[in-house]
Amino acid sequence: MIWLLMFWEFFKAGLFAVGGGLATLPFLYDISQRTGWFTSEDIANMIAISESTPGPLGVNMATYAGFQALGIPGGIFTTLSLTAPALIVITIVYAVLTKFRESEVVKKIFYGLRPASTALITAAGLGVAKVALLNLPLYGNTGFMTDLFRIQSIILAVLVYMGLKKFRWHPVAYIAISAVAGIVFSM
Question: What is the pTM assigned to this prediction?
Answer without folding.
Answer: 0.56
